[in-house]
């Protein structure tokens, strides 16, 4: 038996022998090369042996190169693996777009073959007017100037000290309450106002309500900050005339110089809900930009009308019978059929309103702040979506509702819930009043965003959260549309065969 230590000398001797043999081979090669070089001087036989040696060396080198070429594996991850650094999925995105276009083209052709051409621009006029000589919705919008002038007159009296802050507050409460109640009573009591015309008029009054509330708050903050007595009024530079356009970028108006008719109506038409004494202004009107936005508005308006008449209305018509019979399988099928056109129309309307229309108005008025929306399509939570898809409303809620509640001691959760409740009220106000029925579907849909927002923020993140936001948008809106259309049909059209047939 031998100990472990007995192998030590043997191993060392073997290593030495290997190294010695390698050295000897190297020496032989060198000696051979030297000998070959010396043989070149000796004669032709020596040259032959040298050539053979060089060929042997070249053959061995080629064999090594072939072996390297035969090696085709290395350490790497699959492209679709998360550990892979590959990020170029443009081809897959293009494939999705092509598949989307082809699938919708098939649906479009199927719709044409089944229903024919349903697009009728003349029919759109009847949605706004029942009598071509009676324009009640437009008259409502014109009457809104009375409330604008009342607000301006009240602010002038407050600035000069003619009335106290309490009296001014009472006037504002009365004025803002009438702004919400007056059009609602007119729409409900006047049969000549169509649902679409009523929704338009109520939308104008809602915007006016939010603007005048902001106007009241900002002027009150100015009085509290300056504590100055009334002084003579000057021209407002936040909306200069053409002769003052060049100096407007360098000058700033101070309170109460902003209390002018020009300044007031500039704010009324400006694409914002938050009042300021000095709005950011662009240097000039870009005619090319203005004409592009106008072209988009006209084109998208026609597209919205065509998609609604040709695609959405037939699906809604075919959904009435399953809803009445409570056939849940067919109801689900109709809901999924309605989801695609409804969502497409909503996306087109978003671009038409928040990009084309608001940029058109902003360019026309040289209004500098064009941040009307953020990247809501990347929303990973419901809260992020509501904060970024409608920036003018979000800024108003943050400035005049959410932060004042926090300053009064309310918690964040209570303040956020109050904001959702406020938004839910106006959603229901803008839908139920024009339809002349109160079902609270829009209100409940908005309030359902609270638990949904908590669930998504708590359990879903990243791509899963973004998918949940998209799913709520694609599925949630058609449910509300079907509920309101069904209730409207049952309430107003079921007993009238002509209206029922048209629906």
**Helix residue percentage:** over 70%
Query: Beta-sheet strand percentage?
Result: under 5%
Q: How widely separated are the two ends?
A: 105 Å
State the helix count: 18
- Given helix and strand content, the structural type is mainly alpha
What assembly state would you assign to the polypeptide chains in this entry?
A: single chain
Order of helices and strands: HHHHHHHHHHHHHHHHHH
Low-confidence runs of at least 5 consecutive residues: 1-37, 228-250
Active site: 427
Transmembrane segments: 92-113, 133-155, 167-187, 193-213, 336-354, 438-460, 467-485
Subcellular location: Endoplasmic reticulum membrane
Family: Belongs to the membrane-bound acyltransferase family. Sterol o-acyltransferase subfamily.
Short overview:
18% of the residues are buried. Mean pLDDT is 80; it is low at 1-37 and 228-250.
Report on this model:
The chain has a domain at 130-281. The protein contains 18 helices and no strands. The chain has helices at residues 7-40, 44-70, 90-115, 121-128, 136-160, 165-189, 195-226, 245-248, 261-269, 287-325, 328-365, 382-388, 391-407, 412-435, 441-447, 449-459, 462-493, 497-502. Helix 5 (136-160) runs parallel beside helix 7 and helix 11 crosses helix 17. It is extended and about 125 Å long. The model is unreliable at 1-37 and 228-250 (pLDDT under 50). GO terms for molecular function: diacylglycerol O-acyltransferase activity; retinol O-fatty-acyltransferase activity. The active site is at residue 427.
């Amino acid at each position: 038996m031998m100990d472990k230590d007995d192998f030590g000398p043997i191993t060392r001797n073997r290593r030495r022998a290997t190294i010695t043999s390698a050295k000897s081979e190297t020496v032989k090669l060198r000696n051979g090369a030297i000998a070959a070089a010396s043989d070149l001087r000796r004669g032709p036989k020596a040259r032959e042996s040298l050539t053979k040696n060089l060929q042997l060396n070249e053959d061995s080198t080629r064999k090594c190169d072939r072996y390297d070429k035969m090696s085709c594996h290395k350490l790497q991850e699959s492209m679709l693996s998360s550990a892979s650094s590959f990020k170029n999925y443009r081809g897959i995105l293009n494939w999705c777009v092509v598949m989307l276009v082809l699938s919708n083209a098939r649906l479009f052709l199927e719709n044409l073959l089944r229903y024919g051409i349903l697009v009728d621009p003349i029919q759109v006029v009847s949605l706004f007017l029942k009598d071509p000589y009676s324009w009640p919705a437009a008259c409502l919008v014109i009457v809104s100037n009375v409330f604008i002038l009342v607000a301006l007159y009240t602010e002038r009296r407050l600035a000069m000290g003619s009335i106290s802050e309490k009296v001014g507050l009472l006037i504002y409460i009365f004025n803002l309450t009438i702004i919400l109640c007056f059009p609602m009573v007119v729409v409900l009591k006047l049969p000549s106002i169509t649902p679409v015309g009523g929704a338009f008029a109520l939308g104008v009054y809602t915007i006016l309500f939010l603007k005048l509330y902001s106007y009241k708050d900002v002027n009150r903050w100015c009085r509290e900050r300056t504590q100055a007595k009334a002084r003579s009024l000057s021209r407002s530079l936040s909306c200069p005339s053409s002769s003052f356009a060049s100096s407007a970028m360098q000058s700033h108006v101070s309170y109460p110089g902003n209390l002018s008719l020009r300044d007031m109506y500039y704010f009324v038409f400006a694409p914002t809900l938050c009042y300021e004494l000095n709005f950011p202004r662009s240097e000039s009107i870009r005619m090319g930009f203005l004409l592009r936005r106008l072209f988009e508005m006209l084109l998208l308006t026609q597209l919205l009308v065509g998609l609604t008449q040709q695609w959405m209305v037939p699906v809604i018509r075919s959904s009435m019978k399953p809803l009445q019979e409570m056939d849940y399988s067919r109801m689900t099928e109709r809901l999924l059929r309605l989801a695609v056109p409804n969502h497409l129309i909503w996306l087109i309307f978003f671009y038409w309103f928040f990009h084309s229309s608001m940029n058109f108005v902003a360019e026309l008025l040289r209004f500098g702040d064009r941040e009307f929306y953020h990247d809501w399509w990347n929303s990973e939570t419901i809260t992020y979506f509501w904060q970024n898809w409608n920036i003018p409303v979000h800024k108003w809620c943050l400035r005049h509702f959410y932060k004042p509640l926090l300053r009064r001691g309310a918690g964040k959760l209570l303040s956020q819930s109050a904001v959702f409740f406020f938004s839910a009220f106006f959603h229901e106000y803008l839908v139920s009043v024009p339809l002349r029925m109160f079902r609270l579907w829009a209100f409940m849909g908005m309030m359902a965003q609270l638990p949904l927002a908590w669930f998504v923020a708590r359990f879903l993140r990243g791509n899963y959260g973004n998918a949940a936001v998209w799913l709520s948008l694609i599925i949630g809106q058609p449910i509300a549309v079907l509920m309101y259309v069904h209730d409207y049909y049952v309430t107003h059209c079921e007993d009238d065969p002509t209206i029922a047939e048209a629906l």
